[in-house]
Known about the structure:
The structure holds 2 protein chains of 2 kinds. Chain A is an alpha+beta fold. Chain A contains 2 helices and 3 strands, in the order βαβαβ. The termini of chain A are close together. Chain A has a single domain (2-76), classed as Phosphoribosylformylglycinamidine synthase subunit PurS (Mth169, Chain: A, 2-Layer Sandwich), CATH 3.30.1280. In chain B, helix 1 packs across helix 5. Chain B has helices at 20-31, 74-85, 94-101, 158-166, 214-225; strands at residues 8-13, 34-39, 51-54, 88-92, 108-110, 118-126, 142-149, 153-155, 170-174, 185-189, 195-198. By secondary structure, chain B is α/β, with parallel strands linked by helices. In chain B, strands 2-1-3-4-11-10-9-6-7 form a 9-stranded mixed β-sheet, with helices on both faces. In chain B, strands 5-8 form a two-stranded antiparallel ribbon. Chain B is globular, with a radius of gyration of 16 Å. Chain A binds chain B through residues 9, 13-14, 16-17, 20, 63-64, 66, 68-69, and chain B through 64-65, 68, 72, 100-101, 106-108, 110-115, 155-156, 180.
Amino acid sequence: MKAKVHVFLKPGVLDVQGKAVEGALHGLGWADVKNVRVGKTIEFDVADGANAEADVKAMCEKLLANTVIESYRIELA
Amino acid sequence: MLNARAMKAAVVVFPGSNCDRDCKVAVERSTGAQVDMVWHKDTSLPDDLDLIVLPGGFSYGDYLRCGAMAVQSPVMREVIAAADRGVAVVGICNGFQMLTEAGLLPGALLRNEKLKYICKPVGLDIVNAQTRFTAAFQGQRDATMTIGNGEGNYFADEETLDRLEGEGLVVFKYQDNPNGSARDIAAIMNPKGNVLGIMPHPDRAFEPELGSADGALLFQSVMNSA
Lengths: 77, 226
């Protein structure tokens, strides 16, 4: 099955990249855009099975996200 | 000033490290120690090390997060074990990022507040002069070293920051915070006092010709404590 992991800086951790993108969008005329956050998506194939979700969660905790500053969301399909 | 026994240090080389040679020369010239280069795929470290340096650079091209891939290198298991045994470990710049990723130090290094890569000499306050990394500074209250980082903005939750400050684990602070670092933090150590993460480069400040020799005092402190 396909796993997608979305990683973003936690709310409260300053996302300077998001701020810069927000400023650029304002500059292009979308003045009401707020709270831009730049994150990343990591996709991969994992074996089907009861453990898939637990495995991907462990991958996030150990490597894919730094939970000191980042939160993650897992999609399995 | 230095012990009679030949001092030994190792610099770990990761793909993308670019201050590894500087660290070797800096430690050799500052302390007279024998410095071995250790490849990141090695599964053992030289015996009887007094100091392990994790150098600056862009290990693994900063893929995923700065330092995140380097921490998965085989040699890091040995570095962590050595740190647990009490061997002095100094992580400089990218090396500091590795130490936080490895969980040897708390917190994380974020993108600089103004998004820019900053390379310049900075003034530092020596916050704790009673450490294995600062003892040789003696009466000196401040130091100058060069920073070179795009992600040097130290972050930790308030509770952790309070603990770091309360327990004397903040070793250097910026006099004029260049990157938005929480509480002006430039360098921290672990509670045991043998693992230092420092954003400014002592390896770029070890002779007066480089603008400052304060980095040499840091390496000398470590070797004096061995």
